[in-house]
Design brief:
This protein is of the alpha+beta class and 271 residues long. It has eight helices and eight strands, in the order αααααββββαββαββα.
Amino acid sequence: MSLEQFVNNLLGKAADFGFKLLFAAIVLVIGRILIKWVVKLLSKSKFAKNNDATVVRVLLNFTSAALYILLAVTIIAILGVPMASMVALIASAGVAIGLALQGALSNLAGGIMIMILRPFQIGNFVEIASDSGTVKDVGIFYTVITPPDNKVITIPNGTVMANSIINYSKNDTRRVDFTFSVAYGTDIAKVNEILLDEAGKHELALKDPAPFARLSKQNESSLDFTLRVWANKDDYWTVNFDLLENINKRFAKEGIRIPFKQLDVHIKDQK
């Protein structure tokens, strides 16, 4: 082969690869636009409106990931990379990737379990391990919650499913529990009357189930009373803070003494 033929052959292959590269770039741009359009269309579909927001969000994330994988395979095929070689390469690297991404695969499995079991929904206030907040997003690998101080906490889905989940928003009503301590010698019936009266007067405290108040413990320096009041979940903190303030004021007005720790010292005569 002469030098001229070699150069012409090289230029022809370069031009062919250049066209493939240009076509692959065009497919990449158009593919990304189409994927975004499909995901946006699905998010506004009847299916999305008629199903749980958490399930829809996870499905949209899975759909987006699957479409991007399909786009990547298409671009590889356009560039002329033999698919058989790609399959062999992926298979041989699969074990190594699986070992390296154990945590990611655990999070992926956790995302699937969240979608199936639905222990919470977007907008619920939950406690997961030592973190609590409102669920803002449930992705393929991570769940995002926002606590009352407006931080953003990102929790791996594997961690979510491996820990206990407390969902404070699941039921429509919640019970507000109080413990009030008074000094020994206080009239027990009077304390119960005050607690029930204040709970009954609060407009957000539910009448059914009725408030409950009883002496629950004889402590070292105090008599401890338990007050239980039911409220709608959105009124929980309002009822909690209002009753704490109102009962404290009522105790002061009625002369109910709040106990302080006491220590009796006995002096033994050594004579």
